[in-house]
Write a structure and sequence with these properties.
The structure is a homotetramer of 136-residue chains. With 136 residues, chain A is of the alpha+beta class. The first copy, chain A, is built from three helices and seven strands, in the order βααββββββα. Chain A has one domain: Thiol Ester Dehydrase, Chain A. Chains in contact: A-B, A-C, A-D, B-C, B-D, C-D.
Amino acid sequence: MFSHSETIRVRYGETDQMGYVYYGNYALYYEVGRVELIRKLGVSYNDLENQGIALPVVAMEIKYLKPAKYDDLITVNASILEIPTSKITFHYECTNQDGILLNTGKVTLVFTDITTRKPIRCPQKFELLLRSQFNE
Amino acid sequence: MFSHSETIRVRYGETDQMGYVYYGNYALYYEVGRVELIRKLGVSYNDLENQGIALPVVAMEIKYLKPAKYDDLITVNASILEIPTSKITFHYECTNQDGILLNTGKVTLVFTDITTRKPIRCPQKFELLLRSQFNE
Amino acid sequence: MFSHSETIRVRYGETDQMGYVYYGNYALYYEVGRVELIRKLGVSYNDLENQGIALPVVAMEIKYLKPAKYDDLITVNASILEIPTSKITFHYECTNQDGILLNTGKVTLVFTDITTRKPIRCPQKFELLLRSQFNE
Amino acid sequence: MFSHSETIRVRYGETDQMGYVYYGNYALYYEVGRVELIRKLGVSYNDLENQGIALPVVAMEIKYLKPAKYDDLITVNASILEIPTSKITFHYECTNQDGILLNTGKVTLVFTDITTRKPIRCPQKFELLLRSQFNE
């Protein structure tokens, strides 16, 4: 398992008239979580795209337990539990500044050739970096 | 089963640099789908809130099959398959103007007292309107 | 002058905890307004990009007079007052379903070569279509 | 003058298919800028709302000079140049990690009674805190 926690401050424009973070905005928070997770691994998403690899999302699941509110400091914990094949799955837990678990989720993306838009295998360098973390 | 199809034009600001609709924006399209579905039933979400009932989302699942692109005309088909208890689940299918199935999903919301923020039963009027549709 | 009015239903996710449409979301409504305006002229923004022309925004101004609320039906009136050079300016007025003027604004975009990212003149076909409207 | 610089990482979902940050999303970045500016002054926006004061935006102006791109580290510099009356104006400059000036802007908000939705004077505590900064 390889994981990372990133803190995100809730913006006013991310709330809705219920006074909660709009349920769709967690997709953005989850994105930040996985981008910083792979940056910690030594890979930037920009580098992947520059190498001709895109990572469209193919599945998302979220269970919302408690709402986040304006100005909350959300901790997004993102984890990779398995060595990716052509797909990579990130597991998520969001908590607020009081340690309350807000939601749990899962997002699966597929390594894709940016030109042909066809699935490809996880880049070897990425796999090796991840394996070295799994072995620690 | 009670269902409704609503057409949504993809906005430029809803795309990302991959040239696809950003995966989180389907939450907005799904919202439009269910709001128009219940409006067809004779209920506006605004009325519910005015009666002291909020409907926060407690679960969302999306499987992304094909990307939507800028200026696409997306048909969001939303369905209710079961009489709600304190929870109500909407099932979704999005297709584009060429009839390509883009994604399928499911969103569950909970009827909530807007003051106490506690779950309540589905309002009787809502249930009756839905039952009358199910019987047709 | 060439103008067009487009109706937009406010989405829940576009409101904020004040119960108003978040001020930044009018950029999306204005985008819809100008896209439908030029479609009425016989030009799609997609066609422009396919011809190698991008239209980044270089200036925006909005005066907010009254708030829009959830489920409001906003009429976005977009107008072109002058023949574009390398720049094109759209003037806006948004009103709600009660005829209340919500805001007025102005957005300027620049015709740009999509490859060199340098400004270019307004495409001749576009200018001619617009002139024929101005002369009516 | 009282000012503050806040750094914001561009999210993938904030880009559009041109590969630029969508022009409307700067409203969110500007919001972060002013919220952190007033926090530095010792005031949280949440506190204002809890005291019955809302701050709707009444005017926004942005000049876009250069685009921001995915993963850029944007520095949002927000300044207050004048003691607020019932209105408060924030002046903005956004630069990227290379020191390139991306855009300049101005947002005016109005102190409002959250119940009556009528304008009120800038809270005295806020004015005093600001005056003490201006005098330094």
